[in-house]
Amino acid sequence: MRHAPLTPGSDPARPLPATPGARLDGAHAALASLRAEERRLARLGLAEPLARCREQIRYWEFLAALFALPAGAATVRRCARGSR
Known about the structure:
- This protein has 84 residues and is mostly helical.
- It has helices spanning 20-44, 47-68.
- It has a domain at 19-67.
- The chain contains 2 helices and no strands.
- The chain is elongated, with a radius of gyration of 17 Å.
- The chain starts with 19 loop residues before the first helix and ends in a 16-residue tail after the last helix.
- The mean pLDDT is 88.
């Protein structure tokens, strides 16, 4: 079962921005909204929604880390045969 995003800015179904900087900004905005929601849910003592919120935070932290990589950093370079 797919849950609705906890905040509008953290909707993973929305299109990603075209530029790397805008993608990173979007991930940081999603994290800010989720962290505010996390504090609210903790104050209310809502354990299940809080667990979902923390899952979404981990997802957006992962994306933010990916988006923060310099261009080409994900390229795998192969070593020449026989060299270490």
